[in-house]
């Protein structure tokens, strides 16, 4: 994938895919349990449902706490914006009308298993990355490029963890 020249305002996206030797219902049980995600991510440290929610539904919210070597620690509230078991789960980070990011899992039956995708869009709302860009606007394209590569690597690792759990 190539992000050369992408600026934050371009709302760049990245997507990774993996085939999982398990039916979509089994994969969905893992993907839809966002409290499992910290065990699959170097950055995401914890997730808690808010407002009494116990699982995903459009409008449900959860708080995630993250840590990154260069950005420190932070907390975000995400809003479920799409939930179609066992096919789609998506959430907007921060303001759902102008999110700092949108994340989406897609599941499709394929070859007796599941084609699993994870997609994310950076922006258009401000995020922690916006502050780095504010400090070094001349390096915006490089900052965005490096962060998108980090997302791609982390998403690839996450799909590997989901595959391992689903196939166990």
Automatic annotation (TrEMBL):
What Pfam families does the annotation carry?
Answer: Polyketide_cyc2
Q: Which domain of life is it from?
A: Bacteria
InterPro entries registered for this protein in UniProt: Polyketide_cyclase/dehydratase, START-like_dom_sf
- Identify this protein by name: Cyclase
């Amino acid at each position: 994938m190539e992000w050369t020249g992408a600026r934050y305002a371009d709302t760049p996206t990245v997507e990774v895919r993996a085939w999982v030797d398990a039916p979509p219902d089994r994969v969905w049980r893992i993907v839809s349990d966002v409290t499992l995600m910290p065990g699959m991510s170097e950055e995401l440290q914890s997730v808690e449902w808010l407002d009494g929610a116990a699982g995903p539904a459009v409008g449900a919210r959860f708080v995630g706490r993250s840590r990154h070597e260069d950005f420190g620690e932070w907390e975000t509230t995400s809003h479920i914006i799409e939930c179609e078991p066992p096919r789609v789960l998506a959430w907007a980070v921060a303001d759902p009308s102008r999110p700092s990011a949108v994340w989406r899992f897609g599941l499709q039956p394929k070859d007796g298993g599941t084609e699993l995708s994870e997609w994310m869009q950076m922006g258009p709302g401000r995020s922690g990355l916006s502050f780095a860009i504010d400090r070094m606007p001349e390096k915006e394209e490089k900052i965005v490029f490096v962060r998108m590569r980090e997302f791609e690597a982390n998403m690839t690792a996450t799909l590997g963890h989901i595959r391992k759990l689903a196939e166990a």
